[in-house]
Amino acid sequence: MNHRYEPPTNQGETVSTPVSIPVNPEPATETREWKKLTEYVAEIRGTNLRELFANQPGRSGDMTFNVGPLHVDLSKNLIDDRGLRLLGDLGRAMGLEDYRAAMFDGQHINTTEDRAVLHTALRIPVEREFSVDGQDIAADVHEVLGRMRDFAKALRSGSWQGVTGHTIKHVVNIGIGGSDLGPSMASQALRPYLTAGITPHFISNIDPADIEGTLDGLDPESTLFVISSKTFTTSETLANAHAARRWLLRSLADAGVDVEGEDAVKDITAKHFVAVSTNEEKVAEFGIDTANMFGFWDWVGGRYSVDSAIGLSFMAAIGPQDFMNFLEGFHEVDDHFRSEPIEMNVPVIMGLLGVWYADFLGAQSHAVLPYSEDLEQFPDYLQQLMMESNGKSVRLDGSAVTMPTGEIYWGKPGTNGQHAFFQLMHQGTHLIPADFIGFVNPHTDNVASDGETSMHDMLMSNFFAQTRVLAFGKTAEELREEGVSEELVAHKVMPGNRPSTTIMADKLTPKTLGALIALYEHIAFVEGVIWGINSYDQWGVELGKKQANDLLPSVSGSEHADTGDSSTDDLISFYRQHRADS
Ligand code: F6P
Q1: How many A from CA of 410 to the centre of ligand 1?
Q2: Do 269 and 287 lie in a common domain?
Q3: Which compartments does it reside in (predicted)?
């Protein structure tokens, strides 16, 4: 039975009626809708995509939707109208619409941290009003955006200068996880928009090879560091930030700059370091003037923060106007997700399909295959977004989940992936639903000397061919008709019936990228609601961080390893014995 509560009245103008969300909904597996889907699985197993297309002549049109700048064809998924209706019913039964409203309204749906989940507020257009509990969230967001814009303009115009009067040419973001993956991925994706001569760089790993490799060859006088950390306590980020300051002082000294004394260090830090954080105290402790700090809020999860001040380095590189276009893409998808009915709502359908494949058809992973080299980091970005969000095995009330949760996301740009792992996708024994992402127009094309053959057309021919082959394959009869010798027929049969979603857009623009990210953010939300888990905490990463701190004295040799487990103790001893400086 659902216990319901009335949430506090929301002050936001965009909110009309407060919604009530199920506090402790029954597991999805206990619902009538789940049982019906369990029965329906047999129907789908008894058919295939060839038949589904043959039985529904308008299938592609029926199952293709536009969401913001994205054109999404869902027709090559292993589902029919009835299945989609049943999945929609499951969503309704799990309170999806109420949860969605609760998220947009700023209710504390992140229950274990007692926080609102309001990344959608980061892209609220300036003319809209939005307050929660008397706090003018829209004004807060636009105040920070305004400061980010001023800062980005100062860098790009050259009015912000380093300590020796050089303009800034290199902006190095130091952060990890959500404080790195978003701006790094987006800067690469929007490479053609880096027009002001500012090159963004990213340092995340505690492995010294990362900072060494990134700073190697950079001119210290024209380099600015953005220390990005929501908490400003993350050890990797703080260690890299301190290492960056050591490098800067050393390199400036080599260039003849006076780096001695507190005032000199303060002046250098002020001109070459800014911070993005929610933790003013820790930023000041590091020595960054809080006037050079760009804030955000506890209601922005790290993996949902690329469109907050965490995107500062990226904004500096692409410029404020394109950053605003990026936010517009998010917002268009937010509006669609918030208002479209379940059956017409692309993130809802895609999230429900994720549950369908994971829980009813036994899929263990989900491939994302951008046919765009510029989107190379997009699968990595989605790994954190989807797996840190939904890699949970307890429900909101702490009881164990009753079905597999959390899709394993992975992927690589086409066509490279075709020459690596596509064999397994085509003929292996795993069912791997895949999202293909492609663009109609490239930023630059390369046409062969015949004057006709475009490399982008070649790329896209592969894009269309792969989803077609995955879906429809090739039968033994077709192979025999082609004259394939009998002993090879079994080896060459392409089973087909392997599901994919095709996402296309005109061009990889800032707006398109924003829309793509928002699409997956909302997919994660939908899956989390069905699974009954909290998609917005990440307790599973804490113990490893703590133990790394606890082990450091024995790893660095100042203490003897005594963890109580012989494997770890022996491994640390082996490490110490062979460590060159031991
Ligand atoms: O890996 C855990 C995590 O907490 C992520 O959720 C977060 O994006 C990352 O660490 C970095 O955290 P912070 O921005 O506080 O440094």
Answers
A1: 20
A2: yes
A3: Cytoplasm
Q: Does 485 fall in a domain?
A: no
The yes-or-no answer on residue 153 being catalytic is no
Residue 16 is encoded by which pair of tokens?
A: 């009309």
**Can you tell me the distance from the alpha carbon of 13 to that of 509, in angstroms, rounded to the nearest whole number?**
31
Residue 545 is among the residues annotated as catalytic for this protein: yes
Ligand 1 neighbours by CB, cut-off 6 Å: 175-179, 229-231, 234, 237, 302-303, 388, 538, 541
Contact (Cβ atoms closer than 8 angstroms) between residue 37 and residue 86: yes
Which pair of structure tokens corresponds to residue 479? 């192979």
Q: pLDDT tens across 380-431, in order?
A: 999 999 999 999 999 999 999 999 999 999 999 999 999 999 999 999 999 9
Closest C-alpha to 162, from 282, 270, 243: 270
Q: Which of 236, 388, 407, 521 is catalytic?
A: 388
* Dihedral angle sign, alpha carbons of residues 293, 298, 299, 301: positive
Read off the CATH number of the domain in which 103 is found: 3.40.50.10490
Q: Which of 115, 179, 313, 386 to mutate to test the pocket of ligand 1 (most atoms within 8 A of CB)?
A: 179
Q: How confident is the model over 313-323, as pLDDT tens digits?
A: 999 999 999 99
Q: Which residues of 499-515 are buried (b: 16+ CB within 10 A; e: fewer)?
A: bbbbbbbeebbbbbbbb
- Both tokens of residue 427? 């003929």
Q: Is 501 helix (H, G, I), strand (E, B) or coil?
A: strand
SS3 state at 117 = coil
Query: Which listed residue (419, 491, 546, 578) is catalytic?
Result: 419
For residue 255, CA distances in Å to 31, 160, 244 come to 70, 20, 16
